[in-house]
Amino acid sequence: MTTMTRRRPGQGGKTLEWIAIHSLGIALGLAFALPIVFILLTAFMSDQQTLTAQWWPREWHFENFYEVFQKVPLLRYLGNSLLYSLLATFGMLLSAIPAAYALSRLRWKGRNTAFLLVVAAMMLPPQVVAVPLYDLWAAAGLTGTLVPLIVPYFLFDAFSVFLLRQFFLTIPQSYVDAARMDGCNEWQIVTKVILPMAKPGLAAAGLFCFLYTWNDYFGPLLYTGEQQDNWTLSVALASFRGMHYVQWNLTMAATVLMLLPAIVLFLFAQRSFVRGITFTGVKG
């Protein structure tokens, strides 16, 4: 008993020390978590309680989520968002991997200039090129569809190229040289050496692209604003808030349904995502 009572103060001191060291992280975690908790609790409230100062539901109204589907064709908008995000992520990986490999492993004239252009493209706001791109897609008769949102990711995405290029640089050159000595061509080096070792970087780039397109509001509003059947969840949620602005419980329920896929995806991919971000940028 005496030994146990002597250990307790030490254990309490370690706990306080851990809290003191991680206090900033705990504070930031709470700051990010509280709005999500507020949205989740409001989604289960009645319409009358949302206008009061009470933050805990008096009664849990699970039917709010069912009522959201009755108000708007949410499944259609969910399908549009998934189509946009998944195809854009696939197109990004398909185009960014060869470009990142060429900028990180191949030696050719103008490589540094091309990399500087990629960095410059990252700094270009999308609103700057919105008007000429819209005129281009309007002339092709593709406005009102998801095509103008998806096709550019099959051509070029500056941030993804930069991210993957930085991660490819962390892979030791000896592996690439050994593959060349074994007679592998560049395609075999990419598919059999680089990609298996770059899974965390690919996961990070893919997750960034998926979350960006999933939350994208400007692009879908610009190109599909007149065609309600092609709306994504972000545009539909903004319109839902306008139509049902008094019913905050339904608005928050629709928000929870939009947040859920992104949160689930991040929970499954967080380990690879953190590794990809940690190792990116080790070499310049």
Offer a few descriptive terms.
globular; 14 helices; MetI-like fold; 2 domains; mainly alpha
Task: Summarize the entry for a quick read.
By secondary structure, this protein is mostly helical. It has helices spanning 2-21, 23-43, 63-71, 74-104, 111-122, 130-139, 147-150, 158-168, 173-181, 186-197, 199-215, 218-224, 233-243, 248-279.
What is the CATH H-level superfamily of the largest domain? MetI-like
Distance between the termini: 58 Å
Count the beta strands.
0
CATH classification class of the largest domain: Mainly Alpha
Describe this protein's structure.
The chain has 2 domains: 2-63, no CATH class; 64-279, Orthogonal Bundle (MetI-like fold), CATH 1.10.3720.10. The chain contains 14 helices and no strands. It has helices spanning 2-21, 23-43, 63-71, 74-104, 111-122, 130-139, 147-150, 158-168, 173-181, 186-197, 199-215, 218-224, 233-243, 248-279. It is globular, with a radius of gyration of 24 Å. The chain starts with a helix and ends in a 5-residue tail after the last helix.
